[in-house]
Write a structure and sequence with these properties.
Rossmann fold; seven-stranded parallel sheet; globular; about 40% helix; alpha/beta
């Protein structure tokens, strides 16, 4: 089978959620599939750990999904196509597969710009119309999709994902990012991620004289950041909250390794990669009991209601105040991490490829 894959997101220099996922998934597919032939289509140079693929690199980056990628797919006469992102191009082969990463815009519409909502709705309608199979990271996302798009009757498959554990495990001798003890959040600083309530919870903790931790918010600004900034100023937390912006892949592991606690307060997640990164770093985790997070984290974290800053603060305080509790979470996190691997994810995707039949 001749399979084409869109690697434009995998080629991004600064990788966050979907870009990181796309690269690791493609790399694992190439490493584990000895039967099918792969062509990697990209608008920017990218290399993977094996060389059993053809790379077609278009230098035209503008309108990649609308014009450049469809043209390459037309010329290639491929048997199948995979879109690791979420938007199928205007033209794609009959046997096309795409991921639906989450449907947060359906549940928390107020957390998205009008443009973003229209873009995601358009992408999902296109997937329902064109895709021979749709892939999901969690059962939670699959159930969401079936609720909103009950008429899709073709193949659906949950594949999960994983992380590059070695990056986070081998950081024992790394330099601590700041001299103070700190709590850590990694992800976009936006309304959907519930950073506003995290700041409010941190303000509650800071009222205790014995509380000396800083809070590191590691990630790019997103939709609704202005209110987060206002809340920080309102509570005079400018010298206690450190906003780093994007952190490079090389630097990120040390932030996890030296954190006293990792906090993940999202209202909604399709998976939640940072939780696995914290597990690999042997850092205790507290997080929202919402969407896919209980499915991903199991009993290896301590949960809170993301709508209640007081409960977020209390949960943080309980884990920070008990070494026994923190050590238990670290142990459970390491065990939970064993349930995820890129090889398992790749094999599930390969099985979907091999099940596709052009005649159906």
């Amino acid at each position: 089978m001749k399979i084409a894959i869109d690697a434009a997101q995998a080629a991004a220099d600064k990788k966050t959620g979907i870009e990181y996922f796309s690269y690791q998934l493609i790399d694992s597919l190439l490493s584990n599939d000895k039967k099918n032939k792969y062509t990697i289509l990209t608008n920017k140079e990218v290399r993977f750990s094996t060389n059993n693929y053809e790379l077609i690199h278009s230098k035209k980056k503008r309108f990649w999904n609308k014009f450049q990628l469809p043209l390459l797919l037309m010329r290639g006469n491929y048997d199948a196509f995979l879109e690791p992102g979420y938007m199928l191009p205007s033209y794609c082969p009959r046997n096309s597969t795409t991921y639906v990463h989450d449907l947060g815009f359906k549940h928390y519409a107020e957390c998205y710009s009008i443009k973003n909502k229209l873009l995601q709705e358009s992408a999902l309608k296109s997937a329902v119309k064109k895709a021979k199979a749709i892939l999901f990271l969690t059962e939670s996302s699959k159930t969401d999709f079936q609720t909103f798009y009950p008429n899709f009757r073709r193949r659906m498959q949950v594949t999960g994902l994983s992380i590059d554990e070695g990056r986070f495990i081998n950081t024992k001798e790394s330099t601590k990012p700041i001299k103070d003890d700190y709590l850590l959040y990694v992800g976009r600083l936006e309304k959907k991620k519930n950073i506003l309530n995290l700041v409010k919870a941190f303000a509650i903790l800071c009222k205790e004289k014995s509380f000396k931790h800083k809070l590191i918010l590691a990630g790019k600004h997103g939709y609704g950041y202005e209110k987060i900034e206002q809340e920080i100023k309102k509570n005079n937390l400018g010298n206690k909250i450190i906003i780093t912006g994007y952190i490079s892949d090389d630097a990120l592991p040390s932030y996890y390794k030296h954190a006293s606690l990792f906090v993940f307060p999202s209202f909604y997640e399709g998976f939640g990669i940072p939780i696995l990164e914290a597990f690999a770093s042997q850092t205790p985790v507290v997080c929202s009991k919402s969407s896919s997070l209980p499915e991903v984290a199991g009993d290896a974290v301590k949960y809170f209601d993301p709508e209640k800053p007081e409960q977020i603060a209390e949960t943080i305080s309980v884990v920070l105040g008990s070494k026994k509790e923190a050590d238990k979470l670290v142990k459970l996190g390491s065990e939970r991490l064993g349930k995820y691997s890129w090889k398992m994810t790749a094999l599930k995707v390969i099985e979907v490829f091999n099940s596709l039949d052009e005649k159906k």
